[in-house]
Amino acid sequence: MKKVNRDVLIDASTRLLFSMKGEELDTLLEEFSILTKQMEMMKEVRGIEKFEPMTFPFDVSNSYLRDDVPAEPLSEEDVLKNAGNVKDGEIKLPKVVG
Question: pTM of the full predicted structure?
Answer without folding.
Answer: 0.48
